[in-house]
């Protein structure tokens, strides 16, 4: 399966602060570069990420193509959490968020493994570049919001 991994240094923030920021559901649409619409009664302003929690949202790909996702939080610890797609526009999607103490701040890492519905040809033509763009933008947005 393809993997996208991005690591960003966030100065003057502890791992606990960075992880807490990520666990607040209200921050999800702030760091995501495309519009997100919560579904099925999810109040994004009252969504705290916790193990076992499931929620659905619509992600507007390229700002115009609606893709509905249902995700579950598989794990949460003081150094990471993992979300996994149950239903959505891909065959598989697993996203690990990790924090690690680093001199003067925190290293934040997103590691995503995925499989496109169209397999390797579609991954090569569209999905790999799309994933890289999304996660580069997420990291820019996190830096802006946490600096």
TrEMBL record:
CDD domains xrefs: SRPBCC_3 (cd07820)
Domain of life: Bacteria
SUPFAM superfamilies according to UniProt: Bet v1-like
Protein name: Uncharacterized conserved protein
Provenance organism: Pseudomonas chlororaphis
